[in-house]
Amino acid sequence: MDEDYTFELLEAPTGEDGIEIIERDKPDIILLDNKLPGIQGIEVLEYIHEKKYDIVVAMITSYASLDVAIKATRDGATDFIPKPFTPQELKSSIENITKQLYLRRITRRLTIEGKQVRYQFLSVLSHELKAPLNAVEGYLRMMQGKQAGDMVDDYADQIDRSLQRIQGMRNLIMDLLDFTKIRLEKKEGRVKPLHLAEIARGAIVTVQPYAIQIEVNINLDVRSEVVINADPADMEIIFNNLVSNAVKYNKTGGRVDLIIDSTDNEAVIKFVDTGIGIRKEDIQNLFTEFVRIKNEKTRNITGSGLGLSIVKKVIQLYFGTITVESKPDIGTTFTVRLPMNSANIT
Ligand SMILES: Nc1ncnc2c1ncn2[C@@H]1O[C@H](COP(=O)(O)OP(=O)(O)O)[C@@H](O)[C@H]1O
Ligand SMILES: [Mg+2]
User: Fold this and answer.
1) Per residue in 68-108, pLDDT tens?
2) Which atom of ligand 1 is nearest the CA belonging to 250?
3) Could you give the 3-state DSSP secondary structure of residue 264?
4) DSSP 8-state symbol, 58
5) Using CA positions, which residue lies closest to atom 22 of ligand 1?
6) For the chain, what is the radius of gyration of the CA atoms?
7) Residues 166, 110: Cα–Cα separation, whole Å
8) Ligand 1 within 6 A of 308 CB?
9) CA proximity to 230, closest of 315, 346, 343
10) CA of residue 267 to ligand 2 center, whole Å
11) Which CATH architecture group holds 15-85?
12) CB under 8 Å, gap of 24 or more: what pairs does 180-184 form?
């Protein structure tokens, strides 16, 4: 509510003129006298009410007429300014009305945006879940129709691909679980002092089998024994996702360096890889849900595109930041900064 607002004033001598101005200029606030030469103020109010205009109306009444007040309230008048009034009284009424209107509009906008985001999220999600189902169904139907032969071996390829798609779906569901967790769960109970180096080791152990398979070497460099107050599950989400990305989007024989360091008041964690890199224009969307960079190099890498969006939300929960530097074909560095006195998690 620190925003400045200015007013432009339009005057109408009668209710009829008032309606004309309403139609032409769509004002935000109307100060409406009930006693008017032609139609009454209350009729103007009914007009606005019927048209469902987003206008706040304050009735100016010369005497506290109960009927008018009741009817006016029912028709959407939000305030009464009794006559006579001082300039100061008028000013504070306008201030209140303006605040009300501002809040009402902000709330409405947030509700609409919230609905849009949810709708988008669900439609992308359904698509992401339907695609692998359709693929697996297709392969099963091939087998059912014995399209490639009578023997199980004739379908080795289809079976492999089905298993891959199912694994992709499982990963998506796991990411979704993380996603709902950060949205819904309260953290207070589980926050405790954690050695980030331990969380890092856990994350490395988890991706090691895959790293060995694609010959990527992971190194942990603990330059400072950072202890942070956090929910272990949150820190695991950050480390698991960033280490797994650094391995997944790497090259054969590549390297991942996980560096844990600190300044006076922050933990500074770097995930440095020698992988495929990210183009400048792709960086800005990276943290948006379901965003995956599609090119020749990422074609065969599976993922949900949810990981980084989850990571960012968790980091924000701890008032931290995440930044990316990258050079295509050379490698990428994600830097996470977490305040060390972050016991004050909301
Ligand atoms: N270390 C990295 N190097 C190159 N590209 C990356 C790296 N980390 C993430 N990306 C890109 O960002 C996208 C989004 O990452 P993420 O949200 O973790 O989703 P996912 O890994 O499930 O695709 C990835 O699809 C990938 O294209
Ligand atoms: Mg990922």
Assistant:
1) 777 777 777 777 788 888 898 888 888 888 888 888 888 88
2) 3
3) coil
4) E
5) 303
6) 31
7) 37
8) yes
9) 343
10) 22
11) 3-Layer(aba) Sandwich (3.40)
12) 181/233, 182/234, 182/237, 182/310, 182/313, 182/314, 182/317
Which one-letter DSSP state was computed for residue 188?
A: G
Facing residues of 58 across strands? 31, 79
DSSP letter (8 states) at residue 299: T
**Architecture of the domain delimited by 189-346:** 2-Layer Sandwich (3.30)
* Burial classification of residue 114, based on how many CB atoms lie within 10 Å of its CB (0-12 exposed, 13-18 middle, 19 or more buried): exposed
Q: Going by CA atoms, what residue is nearest to atom 7 of ligand 1? A: 245
Which residue ranges does the chain devote to CATH 3.30.565.10? 189-346
Angstrom CA distances, 28 to 51, 57, 106, 340, stand at 14, 9, 14, 47
Percent above pLDDT 90 for the chain:
53
36: Cβ contacts below 8 Å, ≥ 6 apart: 14, 15, 44
Would you say the CB of residue 273 lies under 6 angstroms from ligand 1?
yes
Identify which of 308, 309, 325, 334 to mutate to test ligand 1's pocket (most ligand atoms within 8 A of the CB).
Answer: 308
Q: Where are the beta strands (DSSP E) in the chain?
A: 29-33, 56-61, 77-82, 192-195, 217-222, 227-230, 255-262, 266-273, 321-327, 331-339
CA distance 301 to 250: 10
- Convert the pLDDT of each residue in 232-256 to its tens digit: 989 999 999 999 999 999 999 999 9
Written as six digits, the tokens of 2 are 């620190």
DSSP assigned state of 155: G
Residue intervals in the chain for CATH 3.40.50.2300: 15-85
Nearest-angstrom CA–CA distance, 18 and 301: 64
Q: Could you tell me which of 224, 231, 221, 271 has the C-alpha nearest to residue 249?
A: 271
